[in-house]
Amino acid sequence: MARDYVEQRNAGYCVAGTRVTLESIVYAFRDGESPETIRQNFSALNLEQIYGAITYYLANRAAIDAYLIESEKEWDAFAREHPLPEELRAKLDRTRQELLVKRS
After folding, report:
1. Which one of 4, 10, 12, 29 is most buried, counting C-beta atoms within 10 A?
2. CA 82 to chain centre
3. The predicted structure's pLDDT at residue 75
4. What are the extents of the domains in the chain?
């Protein structure tokens, strides 16, 4: 019996039955993270769901890559129209750097 691991919701894709976006899994996968590492970062998912999402991406790569490109364009346009306050941007940059240091 086939199982659906990804569902379309609100013009986007989510891991079925969760609020975790397919983008989150795909970007981690494309960055070289293993399914086990992705699992550590998304405690709401089990390995079966992660492998299912990756399989869905690989089986529909052209369509999902096109969707990701379009999403990035939309996000870039939104970010240009609604820039973050400088104080918040600086705080996010500091936090990002701290996370990078912790990971290395």
Report:
1. 29
2. 22
3. 84
4. 6-103
Report the Cα–Cα distance between both ends of the chain, in Å, rounded: 42
Name the one residue in this structure whose structure tokens are 């293993």.
Answer: 34
**Tokens 């981690």 correspond to what residue?**
28
Q: What is the token pair recorded at 47?
A: 């390995």
Residue 92 structure tokens: 């996010």
The CA–CA distances, whole Å, from 52 to 16, 41, 48, 58, 86 equal 10, 16, 6, 10, 40
Q: How many CB atoms lie within 10 A of CB 80?
A: 8
- Quote the strand ranges of the chain, DSSP E: 6-9, 12-15
